[in-house]
Batch of 4 targets.
Target 1
Amino acid sequence: MPALTKLSVLVFFLSVLLSSCGISKKETALNEKNQEISLALTTEPPKLNSIKSADAISFIILDHLTEGLLRYGPNQQLEPAIAKKWKLTKTGATFWLRTDAKWQDGITVTAQDFVYAWQQVVNPKTASGYAFILYPIKNAESINKGKLPLESLGVKAIDDFTLEVTFEKPCPYFLELVAFMTYRPIRKDLHQEWGRAYAADAETFISNGPFTLTEWVHGAKIVMDKNPHYWDKDSISLNRINIPYITRDPSALFNLFLEEKIATWITPALGSGSIKKALKEHLSLKKFETGAVFYFEFNHRDDRLTHNKNLRKAIQHVIDPYLYTNKVLGIAGNTPAYRLLPKWLIGNKKPLHEEYPLTPVTIDHKIARDYLARAKQELNLTTIPPLYLLIDDGGSNGSLTGEYLQELLNDVLGLTILLDKQIFKLRLQKQYQGEFDLTFSGWAPDYNDPLTFADMFYSQNANNSAQYENVHYDMLIESTYKTTNPKLRAQLFAKMQRILQEDAVIIPLYYSGNIYVQHPRLKGVRRSRTGSSINFSYAYIIPENITLTESNNQPEAMPETKKVMP
Amino acid sequence: MNHSSAQNTLKKYPLLTYIAKRLVSGLIAIWFIATATFFGMHMIPGDPLSSEKQVSPQIRKNLEARYGLDKPLLTQYGIFLKNIIKGDFGISFTQENRKVNDIIREHFPISALLGLLALFFASLGGIGLGALAAFHKNQLSDHLIMIMVILVVSVPGFVFAALSQLGIMKVNDLLHSNFPIAGFDGITYLIVPAIVLGLGTLAYITRLMRSSLLDIESADYIRTAKAKGLSNGQIFVKHKLRNALLPVVTVLGPAIAGITTGGLVVEMVFAIPGLGKYFVEAVQQLDYTVIMGTTVFYGGFLVITVILVDIFYGWVDPRIQVVK
């Protein structure tokens, strides 16, 4: 036994000694000499196969490794990528590809790579969650539903460098779509050779974007290096993006940032605790609007009480988005929402909300009670039975929101709200099966067009979990399919928004925003509302010998930045 | 003839018989765990294939066919059992191109290493502190150690995890050193997490060690040893320590299993890619195959650990014998 004790003591000291050797191994946020940055992820990317990816983290990694016909440039503008020019008409589009775009093994990217990828996306066997985003292409939906063969998809490679697309219906936002992840090319030979292993590891991943996947230790580490075969490699200044930390723990992420181990993290949103700490450390806080909108959704199915418009109107006239967002939720970064379509959406020439303003609903308890009385009369009830609010236990503030609604509706209208709290997957299931009266829900845009929000309430849309059905609304949606005229489209969307409010289809609550921190010497990080939310392809490091001044300490181009006061 | 010779062999090697028996009952236990988890999991409402974007019924059918969810539940159960025997846990629902076997193979060794290190710190520290407390019974150091033990037992692990991370940051600040505060790039990254993970067990062992040392204080053989004129130190190491260790060994079995499987919080805070994270996330995501794979694997691991500890116990304490 004494020998064992001695051995243990020895091992202990050895390990302490070893740990002090850790001093030499240094991961730093920014490495100016090698042009490297280090970041952290909250979870590892579950699917790096662009035809199947459907989650935010995979999108972010993929956006560095692959490139589509068009891309978002440093300032969030659409610009030529694999396609050097294009022609968009009412019936289709033609893309002329550059001849110098290469895969990481030096093989040229051709029009066939796109045809193959797009056919695989809509192939019912692939079962891609994002197949619907290709539906503007002719026959895509029918193929996806197993009614037509793959070859009938409306996309053709005229030659190696000319891609011709035929539309199912006019699609004025098609250029936005081809920049999206699901539209990226795939290498047929390798996809077939690797099979299920395609994009499962660094060894079975092929890139055609600014970076290559050099190392991927699952759950632990991702390393991306500048792609020497990338056609536009001269505009990329970083040599390497290190992601040596994967954790969801917000305080661990914040500590890594304070220790200058990481330059920022993905997906970064500081909680109120971290914001206080950041202010204490005099860090400059930045704000980024994610583009997503959160709202209460009513169940419009016939057998539900919320099918009654007056009941919905009663509730609508009680909930004040301003009060809710700032006083109840109180999360810095969010802004109150009075309409479904966010401010940043463009109408004809200016933002839609400026061209077609919508007066917010007046918060008036008397009006609300009048509506309730009418609802009771129509429903032939003296008291309204309890209503179920469906929420989940995820990070979307469900419980707080639920308790607020419970209190408020009980106080003002004497309504009983019961909370139905479920794990996320179960909430989704109940939501789509219609087992709720109200649900606290959110929607993030897939492309920069009001349609990405508006068509959620189209009766034919599978994502219409509210099962809202309105012939007039459907007609307006279908009209947008028939025109590319921006003025007419803006008018159509304005009308839809008015219906959503007048019919109390949903009650908008807030547009989500994130407060984040980023190393002051890291510039050129692009943040977007659609596709990949953050991109470091054009990022660069300001050398230590340059003092940060007001002018070069300006934030990134796209998001508005504000200093948040406690 | 054959039968009796086999019986003779078994009689000759009682330990082997014992192990064989334990293994068989272990297998039954694992089968029971697997069956209960399988049906329990399928009975929970919710659906591993649901996602925010709705897919067409055709795609839905294809997905169900890919995972065999289109078959009747009993058929699924049969396939599942057959695959377990083959050692194949299937493909994850959330990470469509990763096998559950690979997830376990890649991440369990890290959890296990973290757990073993934690156990090492816990037993070393627990035995040491317990002995110290017993040695200085009712003195200041005894009281201090006992207060610390109560503190460690009552404060949840994540508080220590967060505090120790802040602690490393302070140390780095003061010494201009660069100790890792999170991540995993070699065993050095596991030292602080292991200490934090082992704290609860350390406290438990300390108490156990102290009380079992005090128990044998008045035993006959200690009096004999004193009468022989042995020094206090000699008595302590040769007679007291070895006997007092016995109860400690018994807690090691469950502790090994608990520590190697219970590192979730520590894995999160220190960004360590262990299996715990996958296990918990699989439950939240209703990732059927990962839930089943990790549960059966942990079940098997627990059974084997307990058997090994029992054998070890017999070796440490010769009084314990396999009785026919």
Target 2
Amino acid sequence: MKAAAKKKKASGTNAGAAELLHERELRGIVDTVLRLAKSTEAEETEVHVDEVADALTRFANNGIHQNVAEHGLTISVRTVVDGRTARATTNRLDEDSIRSTIETSLSLARSQPKNPRLLPMPGKQRYRDVRRFIGRTAALTAEDRARAVRRACDLAVKKGQVAAGIFSSGQGQTALGNSRGLFAAYRETRSQFSITMQKDSAASWAKANSADVRAFDPQRLAVRASEKAHRAVNARELAPGRYMVILEPAAALDLVGFLFYDFAATALEDKRSCLNERMGKQLFGKNISITDDVSHPLQQGAPFDGEGLPRQRVLLVDRGIPRNLVYSRVAAKAARKEPTGHGFALPNEYGEAPMNLVFAGGDSSVDKMIASTERGLLVTRLWYIREVDPYEKVMTGMTRDGLFLIENGRLTTAVRNFRFNQSLIEMLKNVESLGPAVRATGEEAFEMVVPAMKIRDFHFSEVTKF
Amino acid sequence: MWDLCTNALDTAKLRGASYGDVRVMHLRQRDLTTKNRQVGTLAQSESIGLGIRVLASGAWGFASTDRLTREGVAACAAQAVSIAKASALAKRSAVVLAPEKAYVDSWQSPLRKDPFEIPLETQLALLLAADTEMRRVKGVTLTETNMQFRKIDSWFASSIGSRIHQRKVISGCGIAATSFQGEEIQKRSYPNSFGGQHTLQGYELVESLDLMRYAPIVAEEAAALHSASQCPEKFGTLILGGSQLGLQIHESIGHPIELDRVLGQEANFAGTSFLTLDQLNRLKYASNIVNVVADARLDHGPGLGTFAYDDEGVPAQCTDIIKEGKFRGYLSNRETAHLVGLDRSSGTMRTESWNRLPIIRMTNVSLLPGTWDYDDLIADTQDGILMETNRSWSIDDRRYQFQFSTEVGWEIKGGKKVRMLKNPSYSGITTEFWNSCDAICKFDHWTLWGTPNCGKGQPMQTMGTGHGASPSRFRNVRIGTAFSKQ
């Protein structure tokens, strides 16, 4: 039994970060799989290799209570035989296991009827260079994270508050190759700090996320959450109803993030998108423009899709009018369009989706929005958002960790949390002003570039007890 | 595998760990889906690796690796100890574990038919036939089916001497029909939404579902919903079908009783709980007829929360959560048990995989059967709405205020189901809702439902939980808010 590739030392003997394989080693794994597949009945073979080395320090009650690290590498093989395809995945790297994985993929493929929509695998492609691997982030250690956490917890103790949150850092890479000569590779680092400061029954929250750990200061986030938690005490109950709201970027993200799959051509073909019968119409306000752009400096992610096609920049919404969709190769052929490089790894039933949404920003700011509001609510964060009506895109969820009343251009008091039932379509018609678009991070949607939004007639239906 | 475990524990001890537990896990999964009479996903995966959790300097560290060599495992164990020492830089107090015996055991979940031994052709043929049957119905615009099978082997060893091997086989299956007409998308699913039913069983689960019988029914209901009346907005009597009640239990009982949430350990992400420690044995959680247990034992049924030992090496137990309406118990682990006056963990530490830390999780949190026959319950209801099959669910981060909507509703007048209602929803405050329960159907109507997608923890872990429930009635519930235009 010969090893296809030696796994690197996952982590050494300290609490430092793991090293990823070199790109040539990833390529070596891809080549090994393709070579082994040649001696099978596979007519075409595609290989994904994914490696992660992540660590996360978690704190609560002003101390670290969980602290973890992981390293893993998986090989995923898709074979094609007689117009049929299937995928098998393993994290065993010896040649016997890889052979067995190829055979499993073939066995799955053979078990089904022919797929009339299956296309030949794509050949070699050219990709835009995106660099999102930051050495400083990759080198962050458990001690580094613990020291930052201790400073944040010390602040909480000093202010009579209780801190909870995470500080994570890590790196990952992916390589994709196929038997038609396509090869693509991408690596990135990631880091995130999130903190909730609690004072009795009041709480507030701040979070940041970047490939570069130097892009945010954990202590500044701690200070921000602490100050807002201080303001959040003695929350007053207001009646449910329609309010002017200012959604901070994280809150805006977690709502608009639910729109992403509606821009998939396959979702329209399946008639489960809210854009069915609505493309080319003035659906949102004229201040809403949305692009999918993997190259945007505030974005992350590989510049290629699940089949290895380069991700294109796509203008999805132009001044309130949905103009374009994204297409996998199969969806593009069905619609007689060009693929946009947004397909998921095959086989799948969902097709494609834009994963790098960028909303156009405006020239306002949260402070200016507050100053211009006679009566309204400032929303820090939203929680447990779910779709109530898929066509009108009515979403429900709760406010959380800092809801404040604005009166005559000033924050006057904290407010008890509301449940909302709000159509996203109606909401994006009612946007009065936008802040600059930033890399927003919440908990309900993946990260996107989104501005703070001031929105009229936002529908709160019920109030909770805190 | 035991050698790897021993190697990891020995290294951790040598590096200064005062306690360690290690899990080697081998996970296998098969996913099959169809859409519109075509195969969608067809994939199989396996993952094997080791995770070790240690206490050093009074603090926790965890590391995991897929490098299952002597050197790889030793490096992983050493890293876990180093991380624990880093944790101690910001520890609040030293971790103390409730005592637990050492166990040497091997256990396998019972099954009649190994789903990995059933030919793929057989599995796909059934899904495609059910898909085709749904697609025949006029007005249906999207049909979907799925099967998912998992086989999980875990080898647990701890520094107190436990050596436990468990093998679990989990099966899941469901079908759904969607209809887009005018300006509405309506959907019906069977036997439950979001992937169907999932249990700790073999392929016999799939065979028990009789997909071909229900395929045309769900398709016809999906199309019929377009011409159904809108669910009214009012306060009134609500009857919940078993699967919807299972999710109601999950969200408004299962999560609030997790002791890590209660103690603030999830405050930044999953949230906290209204069930503060002073509520134990005092809070009137529900009406007197409500009895809820957290039961991980096989005696309770083949649920997604059934096992012989949790991932901390504690045997499966049954804990009273609500007894005759009173709040009686939390879900705890060895670290938190003493905080609620227990001398032992309730055995609820579970991990998604070898690369994740075990955390407190629901097991099978179930509403025990009542006394009503289902037909009698309907006949006894003069004016009410029956809601079935979840469509959306949401609850605040302390688990007070919730809102659910379901795929279909049925108006009940004079003890009879008189017409279909579309877009049903209801909302409320947890304890007010449970105190309004006045009828629970008996065991004949009780099903142990599986929720395969419960997310918790950072990094996020997805876990399967079980929820036994039978149709039940609630009075004076707020109905129809989700679609209110007010």
Target 3
Amino acid sequence: MLESVTPLAASAVALAMPLILAALGELVVERAGVLNLGLEGMMLLGALAAFATVAHGGGLVPAILAAAAAGILASLAFGFITLTLQANQVAAGLSLTILGAGVSAFVGRQYVGFRAPASFEDLPIPLLSKVPLLGPSLFSLNALGYATLALLAGTAWFLYRTRAGLALRSIGESPVVARSLGLHVSRVRYGAVAFGGAMAGIAGCYYAVAQFKMWQEGLTSGNGWIALALVVFATWRPLRVAFGALLFGGVSALGLYLQAIGVQVSTFALASLPYLATVAVLVAISADQQMIRRHAPASLGKPFHDDS
Amino acid sequence: MKLWKSTIAAAALAAGLGIASAPGDAADPLKMAWVYVGPPGDGGWTYAHDQGRKAVEQKLGGKVQTSFVENVPEGADAERVIRDLAAKGNRAIFTTSFGYMEQTLKVAKTFPKVEFYHATGFKSAPNVTIYNSRMYEPAYLAGIIAGHVSKKGVLGFVASFPIPEVVRNIDAFTMGARSVNPKITTKVVWVSTWFDPSKERQAAETLIGQGADVLLQNTDSSAVLQTAQDKGVMAFGWDSDMTAYAPKAHLASCIEIWGGYYTKVAEAMLAGKPLKSTVWGGIKDGMNDLVSVNASVPDAAKKMVAAKKADIVAGKWAVFQGPIVGQDGKVIVPEGKSLSDQEIDSIKWYVEGVEGQLPK
Amino acid sequence: MIRLRLVPRAQPSRAMLFVAPLLAIALTLLVGLLVFAWLGQNPLRAFRVFFVDPVSDMSGVSELFLKASPLCLIALGLAIGFRASIWNIGAEGQMYMGGIFATGLAIAFHDRGGAWLLPAMILAGAIGGMLWASITAALRAHFHANEILVSLMLTYVADYVVKYLVFGPWQDPQANNFPITVQFSDNALFPLLAQWGWEAFEGTRLNASVLITLAAIPLAWIFMERSFLGFQLLVSGLAPAAARYAGFAEKRMVWLALLVSGGAAGLAGVSEVAGPIGQLNDRWQPLYGFTAIIVAALGRLNAIGIALASLLMALLYLGGEAVQITLQLPKALSQVFQGLLLMFLLGCDVLVNYRIGRVPAAAL
């Protein structure tokens, strides 16, 4: 039993890692009160930037930097329109998705058809990686995977244990109050949006250089939307993002696993399973209304003008 | 069956009424257009069609002028695109996905002088010709290699949707492998999508976790092949030559070759006699092949592949020729018989060696 | 150095409502000019092909309306919810469900339908969309589950329901095992306007379903701007506390918003399957439900604005096809322009509510 479940866990973890990266970034953005639905677009730009970097002989570190830079650039365009020019965040985010998909597809045409010349490979930790069940999944990640875990811990620490994190959260709760306390609402929000862009870019890098090691138009295949859903699912808490991503990856892997061992269920029902499971868990969590209210950033998605 | 009757009727009608368009002016190149369901940058299905289009350009240079529209959704938009292409003076239009069938037929009615070629469909008309590729032939050859290479005797197949086109590829792959090692089995995972690298990768991981050490896929990305290389097992490319994606894991690629057919269509139109007959081509017709066989593949496998290929080309042997035993051990096709094209086109059963039940 | 800042206007500028879109188009043109020049194309020609040629004849105009109609219909429904800050982003799935319900009737009465069949399908489609949206409404109203997430997840599920049906019980037995239903009979299809003797539409495929949209625009306008219920929705979106104080039941607002938007999306689904497609198949994923979110926002959640925005979105689609067909520019490029134009348009909208002023000397 354990023998066949172990690869299941590994498969769940592999699917979860880039989702965690992108969702963590978006979580910080939303905690600051900004809703950026452009994740998919930023991820695609990051993926292309990373692949182009290694394709032109750049190393892996430059690839991460390029991906982050691409994500930041795109997110700042979004920031300028929504934070400075006060545009509707939902529409701006969706537009960013279209723009990112378009630009990456257009520029990426020359990178189709070959393997990334450099890529992140699995780095099993001696001994730990031999632990049954979780060993081959959690302790034989690639460098970006370990970095994801570090970023997860770092984000949680930042949000809950630092002054800056507190400032960011209070801005998300009530920008008016935060400003009266002397906080620079726009500046912090710009910072959060840029962080979200960087993380989405790195998530794209994960797909292009660590997981698929190739460039293909639409490489992220809608995972940006899943990451967005995870943030809400996690009630804006970092560790729950990881839990949600693993659950999603796990249920998705389970559907395929059940098929492979010959369980007779409609493949379409199995394919719907991760989405239904997400809804079911969300309902279970949300039934406690107090908790949701405590965690959803109150000013989410609402424009705020520094002079108002 | 309806399909074949209507095709014959169409051909007869076309010949009888002389619907063929007049050859174009020498100064005026023949305009041909392609409608793609994905981008040529998909590295798979659409890429292969675009290679075919480029082959026409290369061969017939100044005599033809080709163009394409990519990422055309298979819904209300397709009809408009096809109509526009016809209105803009294209004399032959290739609609390269099943979902364009009704739209192609509708537009064809209003443009009787334009020739339409629809890939993978089953309805034709006086000026709508259908064409497809027998991908189960290279899939069978891939199976031979898999049978030689697999150490565990378990193969994995990442499948998209349970339509005959996919089911018969699973069957052919398995029969090829069992012609080498009669004990080999194939595990199948259905991902319910044509393109989703994340899901294709998970399906590959699942199969590898279940002991499969050689994988084949009937989906559009190269994720399965990449995953195989990461996990130290072997796999094949599909639709186009995917060697460059995973040189170590890549055993060979089952590829579609549309260039020859497209060139023939163009030449026939230039000669004023448009091709009107349904084409369901295979290795013999140069419409597909198994290529780029890895150097690590044993010579015995290479020889056997070459021999089967020669038999197919010579017409001495066919993939769906008896004896074929079904999953339950009962003979489906007795020795000495072989399936007709119509029967192959409606296969909804697994052969012996495929595990699990076909999804309903 | 002069520092600029945005100064809120006391009243939204009516002039800017018209200037902003023009400015956005000008900015897109400018970027486009540079890109086309860089690609070695004649920019002026490219833009004529993109923006003018697609609507230069009646058939083009008809296609524009055909494409804009479902977008407009869905966006009108969404806007009503968005005003109440109820973010239904699963209209795509509700549209599928509308298509499914209508298809069910079309198949069941394939050979024995009468003139009643199409109206029944329209009704069934609206009900289908509402039912699918009501799952989200119930989970939001009674379990406080976030409607963005639930409606999005249900869209994936609805897609698999379509696939299950067309691969299984609803598959056309004559279809060689391909995942399609039968082609609907004439009783189950929207008549073409040309068939009604409207000669201007001769040879086009504009069908009667656009009349639903045309009727919906004034209805939505009256509902949003003139009805008490519409006002309640707006208040509960802008000031939830005040709404509670005034006794507007939040649950009722949630149900109302989702049922209206689900019903509209369901109708859009019928207009697709009983319109230009004429069947249900596994490839039907027009993404209108998502595009309509942009349309609703671009139209500033106003019925007239949405109607115009849907036409603009439709033009962007048609233009993208046209530059590909005529100039062989990649589809990705038209996506780039779509994204740019939308971003510019959203950015320029700032001028409606703000004016640009200098930072007062005292503040420096």
Target 4
Amino acid sequence: MDIDIKILGPGCTKCLEAANVVRMVAKEHGLPVQIEKIGNTERIAEFGVLLTPAVVVDGDVKCTGRVPSPAEVLTWLKKAGDRENRPV
Amino acid sequence: MQPIIPIKMDNPAPTLLQPAPPPTASTKIKYLLTGLAGLGLWFALYRQLHSLAEFLAFSLLGLKPGSHLGEAVLFFFYDTPKVLMLLTLIVFAVGILRSFFTPERTRKILAGKRESVGNVLAALLGIVTPFCSCSAVPLFIGFVTAGVPLGVTFSFLISAPMVNEIALVLLYGLLGWKVAAIYLGTGLLIAIVAGWTIGRLHMENHIEDWVREMHINAADIPDEKLTWADRFNHGKMAVRDIVGRVWIYVVAGIAVGAGIHGFVPEGFMAQIMGKDAWWSVPAAVVIGIPMYSNAAGIVPVVQALLGKGAALGTVLAFMMSVIALSLPEMVILRKVLKPRLIAVFIGVVGTGIMLVGYLFNIII
């Protein structure tokens, strides 16, 4: 199953950058991801996020208010990928 | 939902979460030394700016000192690098400072605080907490649903955009530390008093219903453990982000300012923006609301206006109105606030700005 990624943000340049970093890392390492961009205020608030952009991996908010580094994204994706294969 | 697996940064397993090496004494010293060397270089260059500008304007371009054009060009060549250098230094320092504050931490401090104390704290935290007006709505919801009183939330929302490092640096660089201090003091005061007033009016039922009905769990974001390398990086990113975004406004603002400086006759503004025109303060506030500019673009123009006889109070009121009350922000906030609360917000903050304007026109 694809790793479920949500990018929260109204569509500012930083949100696009955050989505690009995730896409790039996933492609580079051949990890299957499904990226969804959420710009709706109500839904952003539901995640309890105070600053955008935010990156959500499998329902967990991983970072807020900044564009994550590729290294960070890789660790999140690897972890999520491991979880897919070995049920906890 | 997947079960949340808490990430403990202090246990040895997920070391790959921290690409940077742990802070040893030697890396700390390395950063300290690099910082000091950079600061020394910065000061050496900064002190040469005036002679450099004179050389460019008078020796290289051959303009006559004292002539209209000569003075305008000198002003431009001196003030542009000066302001940009100040901006870079302060934005870097504030970027590092801000890595110690997150909105989540600020919210934790403010939740459940009594109103008066809360208003003061919120206004102060507004200066150092990273904030961008595009996040105003999620932040508002996050604060209010976590039990931060409405008035305290407003103190934060007023202070965060109005009292910021960019405005203060530009005021300091172009108008001196006294004006910068006045702006800092009165800006905080407006944020505290306006927030407190809105709290007194008990307008909680003028928040949109869907917000009040929301039950959200604050996101469980692992507190990042930052190394000094990370904090330096925060500073660098802030410089790239903020200076990269505002330098063009600074240059354009100073160019307009230089034009006014060299060519508009002395005392020209005294009639329309001087102390004696009582209506100029409210007019400045009203004109400022639909105008949307950041501090970077407005301060150089403000400086030039002051030089031509405009009164300080009027000009400060204009600047605060442009920065703190902006139409786009009202449109964003309309999603969570009913029209009456928005009207009260504009009314209370606008009145505060006006009082500050009159006050300074009287005492200075």
